Each structure stands twice: as structure tokens, then as C-alpha cells.
Amino acid sequence: MIETEVIESKSNVIMKRDGFSFEKLDNKCYYTTFDIKNKNLNLTNIINFDLIKVLYDLNPDIYDLVEIEKINETEANLIIVLKHLFKDLGIPQKYSYLNIKLHKTQYFFKFESKPIKRTKPSQVPISAEVVDFDHIETIGEFITNSHVIVKNYTYIGSVTNTMSYFDKIAASITYKIISRVINFISNYKKMS
């Protein structure tokens, strides 16, 4: 069983909509949960690094660049460059360079993402700043082969007392990304 340390008693719900929940558990952890259902698809077969690519391909208005370098079936490096969404506010463009490991059984999966801090990829604009987080855990529990409950924990690198409107912006962007993926998978018809 996969264990994740969470301090749920300090939870602050930022957004709940259509089965999606985005919460701030404490000053260092954001928690997102949602579920995906599709009776026409065995979801256990699609949980892999290709699904991460789909997540970003469905959101070209949010990302400038997404590159996945598969090391093997259970590990990959990922470069993400966000669109310069808040340029007018003087906030620098953001990017992440991650090492992701996948642990999977027939009952659950876990993506563990940690930043690669040793270098800035050449594909990233010089003025872009790295998103400051310690690690991300995305955990899924298969209720059935066609239903999975997903929980995501994002641990921030330094303690932050962000203003509530920044939390709401993060929640709105995350909701937009996740809802597109849920709709894509939920409406996918397996080709015969």
C-alpha cells in the first residue's frame, strides 16, 4: 500500500466543482482529487507516460512546451514550459524539469515527480523561472478497471503564505487541465 503523509485537519478548500477538489492542506502542500470513469475502456491499461503527454497535449493554451524523455517503462524526464500567462503583471514565465517514476499494480498507481535542479534545459527560455516545489505525488486507486480515484499532492519547496487569489488562479488552471483530460478519457470509445 502506498502511504502519503497528509495533514488533512488544516485543509482549506479552494475549489470544488464537478467532482474535482483543490485544497491547500498547509503552507507546503496542495491536494487535488477527482475520479475518472469510462465503461468502454480499461483504465489500468492507459496509466503510463503517454497519458502524461495527453494531459499536456489537451492544453496547448496553457503550455508552450512539453517534452518527455522515456528512460524506461517506469521512469521518464519531463520538461514543461508554461505559457507566459502573467507577463502583464511582471511575473516571469515558469517551467519545470522533472524526473518521474511510475509504480503500478492492478489496484493502484503512483507517479512520483521530483525536480531536476542541476541544470536548466536548453529548450527553456533564459528568462523563465523554475516552479519551486519539493515533489509531487499522484496516486490512483482503481475501484474497477473502468473507474479510478486520483489524488495529487504537490509539496511546495519553501513555505509560502500565498494570497488567496493566487491559490484560486492555481485552482482554476488545474481544474481546466484536469477537466479536459477527464472529458477526453470519459468520452473515449475503444476502437474495435
UniProtKB/TrEMBL annotation:
Q: What is this protein called?
A: Uncharacterized protein
Which taxonomic lineage does the organism of this UniProt entry have? Answer: unclassified sequences, metagenomes, organismal metagenomes
